[in-house]
Amino acid sequence: MREFILEVEDLKKYYFDVKAVDGISFKVLKGEVFALLGPNGAGKTTTLEILEGLKDYDSGKIRLFGEEIRRKIPRRLRERIGVILQENNFVDHLKTIEILKMFRSLYPKGLDIKDILKEISLEDKANAKVEKLSGGQRQRLAIGTALVGDPELIFMDEPTTGLDPQARRNVWEMIEKLREKGKTVFLTTHYMEEAEYLADYIYVMDHGKIIAKGSAEELISSFGGEKIIEIDLDSKDLDLSFLSEFQKTKVEDSKIIIVTSYLPADMKKALDLFEERSIKIDDIIVRRPNLEDVFLNLTGRKLRD
Amino acid sequence: MRFLSILRAMAWHSVRDKINIFFNLFFPLITLLIFGYVFSGIYSQSSVNIGFYGQKLPPISGVKYIEYPSISELINAVSSQKINLGITLNGTALLAYINPVNLQSSNYYTSIVKSVADEINRSRGINSVIKVERNEISFSGKHIDYLDNLIPGILALSIFSAGIFSITASLAHFRDKKVIKKFWITPLAKWEFYAAFISEKMVESLLSIILLFVAAVVFFRPPYSIDFVRFTLTVLAGTFGMMGIGMIILLISPSARVASEVSSVLYTVIMFFSGVYFPLDLLPKFLQYIAYGLPLTYLVMAMKSAMGIAPMSNLSYYLTIAIMFFGSVLVLLGFSRIFKVE
Amino acid sequence: MRRIISIFKALTLSSLRSPSVIFWNVFFPVILLLILASIFSNIGKEVSFRVNFVDESTTFKNTNMDFASYISRAFEEISAGKNAVITLQSSTTERFLNESLKKLKSGKIDAVIVIPPLFNTQIYAAVAQQKSGLNLFSKPKIEVYTLENSETSDLAFTVISSVLESFNLKILQNSAPLSDFVSPKIEYISKNGQNFSYIDFIVPGILVMAVMTVSLFGITDDLLVQREKKVLRKLFVAPLNKSEYFWAMILSNLTVEIVQTIIILVLGIYLGSHFNIGISVLLYIIFVMVTTLPIGFFIASFAKTSDAGNALANVLNFLFMFLGGLFFPITGVPLAVKIVAYAIPTTYLANGLRWAMGTMSSPTPMYLNILVPSIWAIVMIIYSAKVFKWEV
Question: What is the ipTM of this complex?
Answer without folding.
Answer: 0.81
